[in-house]
Amino acid sequence: MCTSPVPHPAAHLVARFFLGVLIALFFLLSGCSAEEPTAPPPPLVRTVAVAPGGTTAESFSGVTRAAVESRVAFQVGGVVSDVAVEIGDRVRRGSLVAWLDPADLTLQAQQARSGLQQAESQARLAGAGYDRVRQLYEQGVVPVSQYDAARTRLETVQAGATAARDQVALAERRLGYARLMAPVNGAIAEVLVEAGELVAPGQPVALVTTQGSPMEVTVSVPENAVTGLRAGDVATVALTAFPDVLFDGRVAEVGVSAGRGATTFPVVVRLNSANSTRAVMPLRTSALALL
Question: Could you tell me the pTM of the whole model?
Fold first, then answer.
């Protein structure tokens, strides 16, 4: 009579141990495989490609701007009282952009008017004195030297009165310069100062783009790629603001020297006017140019 060998109790424990390990490995591997790889973040800046005819196109990143822009500034210095515009605002020629605290300029204008009053008073006295001396001279009572002296004094004070009038006109004009107006119809691309800031004459306050101005993209092209570019080459531009639209353009300018401390050359791509008017084109948006 044959009997089956009875498994040792330790064998059951070992088998259960390895079975548990295999199950743990199975779930661990299946969990790892289910994990999807993390996609890299999308680029913040898109590129614009410009391609010379018949050559392989390369893409270069850049920023859009209007072809005609004006940096508006006060002609006098002072403290900015307020800024009347924000980025993106549409402006008309002559509309208010910002103004300065007029206190100092108003005082200067008042001083100029006071100086004019004094000069005109002196001119009236000199005129009356000249008339008396002239009459006496014609009667032969006073010598010619006294007559000449009276005439010279009159001419001097009259010149002083003329200069005082010019000072008044200048002071009033400077007072008018405290209000900064838009020079053209267009839009505000940048605001460069804030209320309460002290500005110098000629310091840019805002950047105004001219209405109807074509859009441009300025890109930096390395030396090995810029040699094949010429003004008039066809280019294609993609804007981050319009991810599904490609815009036609042409190379408008090719830089002849690299920027300071850089090895790239500036290249300006101008979008066709038909493209620029098909939508409200954003300024200072990232772009890709295919050249």
Answer: 0.65
